[in-house]
Amino acid sequence: MTAAPGYGPHDDLCVAFLQELPIDGAAVSIFGGSAAETLMCASDTTAARIDELQYDLGDGPRWDVFRTHLPVVIPDLSAAGVRAWPAFAEAAASTDAAALFVFPLLAGGLVIGVAELYCTSPREFSPAQTSRAAQIASRTAWTLLRALMPDNETGSAAIPLARREIHQATGMVLVQTDSTPDEALLLLRGHAFASGRSLQDTAMDVVSRQLDFTPAAGAADQGSQ
């Protein structure tokens, strides 16, 4: 997985983090389910390398973020706690990053990727900065989800949106995530895309209560779109 530093299909998404937070670099990746891993933007070579290392090694905080839906904050990459990811910790020592903050790209209850933010010296985020980073990450998730799931790719010609189960599931997701009807349907489409299943099957799982989009406790407090 490679990407030219400072470029990408959505390189403007990294700018938002850089402008609003005290960081030196940022990368945004989408992944999960059957969706291919894609580095959407990287502000510089260090940001791209941190992202690439975790992908190549299958080790690092991004995998914890994807599993828990919660951010991982590492004020000092040289600290002993980083040894929770031994392969990544050793490899990261060769980069310019000294602090790392990884936030889930959360849209409702769906994680579509991560935002990886780094500093060249040890640093801690204040509660306000952590909240702001989560808000930007949530906004980024919705932007990317809309880009991945444009209406013209999932319109009524391809998927019978009039089917009762899809309408019913959309209403259930709307309540679970406190979102709009359009956003609820977008979440259904995104989950179907990430899991490699049809929208109809995904809707049936929601209706039968096998699938619930209610944000996990704690994750819901990170910020909203």
Question: What does it look like?
Answer:
- It is a single chain.
- This protein has 225 residues and is of the alpha+beta class.
- It is built from 8 helices and 5 strands, in the order H-E-E-H-H-E-H-E-E-H-H-H-H.
- It has helices at residues 12-20, 45-57, 61-68, 86-92, 127-148, 164-177, 181-195, 199-207, and strands at residues 25-32, 35-42, 72-74, 99-107, 110-119.
- The chain has a 5-stranded antiparallel beta sheet, with helices on both faces.
- Helix 6 packs across helix 8.
- The radius of gyration is 18 Å and the shape is elongated.
- Mean pLDDT is 82; it is low at 1-5, 152-162 and 220-225.
Question: How are the elements arranged and paired?
Answer:
Elements: H1 12-20, E1 25-32, E2 35-42, H2 45-57, H3 61-68, E3 72-74, H4 86-92, E4 99-107, E5 110-119, H5 127-148, H6 164-177, H7 181-195, H8 199-207
Antiparallel strand pairs: 1-2, 1-5, 3-4, 4-5
Give the SSE order as H and E letters: HEEHHEHEEHHHH
Number of helices: 8
Strand order of the largest sheet: 2-1-5-4-3
Morphology: elongated
Fraction of helical residues: 40-55%
Low-confidence stretches: 1-5, 152-162, 220-225
Rg to the nearest angstrom? 18 Å
Mean pLDDT: 82
Major sheet size, sense and barrel closure: 5 strands, antiparallel
Oligomer: single chain
Please give the number of β-strands.
5
Separation of termini?
28 Å
> Helix/strand/pairing class, anyone?
alpha+beta
β-sheet strand percentage: 15-25%
Task: Briefly summarize what is shown.
The chain is of the alpha+beta class. Helix content is 43%, strand content 17%.
Sum up the structure in keywords.
225 residues; alpha+beta; five-stranded antiparallel β-sheet; elongated; disordered C terminus
